[in-house]
Write a structure and sequence with these properties.
alpha/beta, 8-stranded mixed β-sheet, two-stranded antiparallel ribbon, 10 strands
Length: 328
């Protein structure tokens, strides 16, 4: 799914997220894709000692001054380019930056040398940013005439370049998007790990996952198997309840709003039940209209709270969560 991109004057385009703290987790072994026989949505049980950090994401600066957003006290925001980063730094946030293809040449991927050059340039431009993702949704694949995605081997080389030029930084080594069928994603993870071994570089301790397919079917087995395959600490760098997305997730007469609210409750339960998960970022804050292709907003396009907002607000112990919600 799409995250906002930082419109910098760099060929490598960026996505950014702000967060408050970090955590660690021990590595686990990789696992194969084996879908459970029972598909029913069981409510995962949170472990007593499980802890994870929750944040919001959106490309609109209006979220910063929105009273409904402020009462969540997540200290999370997403915006474009220098203005976004400077604002986030002013709010004393830690910023996680994910590199991505250029909006000007999305079909052309940078060489490792180009990647290293522009990463170094970015680090010098924003010396207070210390958390990075090597590439956003590395396994998304090539969409003819739209965008290109790096191979697992190329992503591993990008990761190696990143940790070499930003010593001491926190690096999310691989960030992947799930799907209804996760077999290709598991293969991508295995190929990435093999390349890391060939490069004789450090295996990532932190891994990123966008688990829309799993969560929005109110299932957790994909998240669990992908987390096991990656090992280490898992950050759900994009997650949330989809209001509308194609034929699989329609929003007929407000049905998508109710479904998304249920998904958000389930999302929190899944995060609490899997100790590997240490961060989750709910995407996004401002939703769209009936013509919007992908809509997972907690508010509508006029910034009015949706039912999903109430779920998130109560989970984060907001002071005034029983707000009037919209059915748009």
């Amino acid at each position: 799914m799409r995250m906002p991109r930082l419109a910098l004057t760099l060929p490598a385009l960026l996505a950014a997220i702000a967060l408050v703290a970090t955590a660690t987790w021990a590595a686990t072994d990789a696992g194969a894709a084996a879908k459970p026989a029972a598909k029913a949505a069981r409510t995962p049980v949170a472990h007593t000692a499980s802890t994870y950090l929750t944040g919001l994401g959106d490309e609109s600066p209006e979220m910063f001054s929105n009273a409904d957003a402020q009462q969540l006290k997540t200290k999370i925001a997403r915006y474009k380019a220098k203005a976004w980063i400077k604002y986030a730094e002013g709010q004393h946030m830690q910023i996680l930056v994910a590199f991505y293809h250029s909006e000007y040449s999305p079909l052309r991927l940078p060489s490792v040398a180009q990647y290293k050059h522009y990463v170094e340039k970015f680090i010098k431009l924003f010396p207070r940013v210390h958390q990075y993702q090597a590439w956003d949704e590395s396994n998304r694949g090539n969409i003819r005439g739209v965008l290109a995605s790096p191979s697992a081997s190329a992503t591993a080389q990008y990761y190696q370049a990143l940790i070499r030029v930003c010593k001491g930084c926190t690096a999310v080594g691989l960030d992947v998007l799930d799907a209804n069928d996760i077999s290709p994603t598991l293969r991508y993870i295995s190929e990435f790990k093999r390349e890391i071994g060939k490069l004789r570089t450090v295996m990532p301790k932190i891994w990123g996952l966008h688990n829309y397919s799993d969560i929005n079917r109110r299932e957790s087995w994909r998240t669990r198997q992908l987390s096991r395959a990656m090992g280490g600490q898992i950050w759900l760098t994009e997650t949330g309840g989809i209001v509308q997305f194609g034929g699989a997730f329609p929003n007929r007469n407000g049905s998508g709003l109710k479904r998304a609210a249920k998904v958000l409750t389930y999302m929190f339960n899944v995060a609490g039940s899997q100790p590997q998960i240490k961060r989750l970022y709910i995407y996004n804050w401002i939703g769209g209209n009936t013509r919007t292709r992908f809509d997972a907003g907690l508010t509508d396009n006029h910034h009015r709270p949706r039912p999903g907002y109430v779920i998130v607000c109560k989970h984060l112990h907001g002071a005034k969560c029983n707000v009037k919600t919209t059915n748009h």
